[in-house]
Amino acid sequence: MKQAAIADGPEFTVVDSTLMRRVFYAFAALALLSVAISLGGKWFGHSIAMAGYTDDTTVRRVVIGNNVISVPANFIRFDQARRDGVASRLDLYLRYPQMDGYSEAARDDFNHSEANRSIIFLSFEQQMMSRDMSGRFAPIYSALIVQPGIPGPGGTTVYGFNEKSGYLNEVLVVGTRGGKDPFVARCLSGPSAGQSLAPCERDIHVGDDLSLTYRFPKEFLGDWQALDAAMTAEAGRILKPGH
To answer: Is the pTM above the cut of 0.85?
Structure first.
């Protein structure tokens, strides 16, 4: 009777231990892959959200010629330039008038999601010309513009360029400064001006044989004195000549 009961009971199959190990390893691998995807997704999602920006405020020291530019990483436009070392050029961006770099609080401004534009783009490189834009007005630009000009924002005068100047779809904005060379900026005109985030540009000499070119929204022309003073002061703050 006992043997019959055993015979009539459920059958048990012995599973190969090698197969069990393979199943275990497969589940372990899936678990690890799930964790990796989760962590990678969080990192990659953050990377996409940053869109090339960084909120890292670590100060980087970049050497151009005989100058050291000490600036937080979140001021530097391009990822590959966010390092210490020697460079031929350094591109920055900042909010004006706050004069700060990228941060979570400033994200909308840097993404240009608002109607008001507030980002200025700066480029440092060694001088290619003996005169900056103000110094070039009398010997160069004055011969390329069409007189008379028209009144511009902030007491400036806006001049068109003649056909042979080579400055197609641009105007020259000039502001008088007593006892000094005038404030001079070139700005895009026409449809191209409306499509540009920073249609005006000006260059000034700073440091030890460095040229600073800054591009800015045309709306800032109304307060060009404060703008130019802020750019000069910022260059003096982050730039250490005589390296």
So the answer is: no
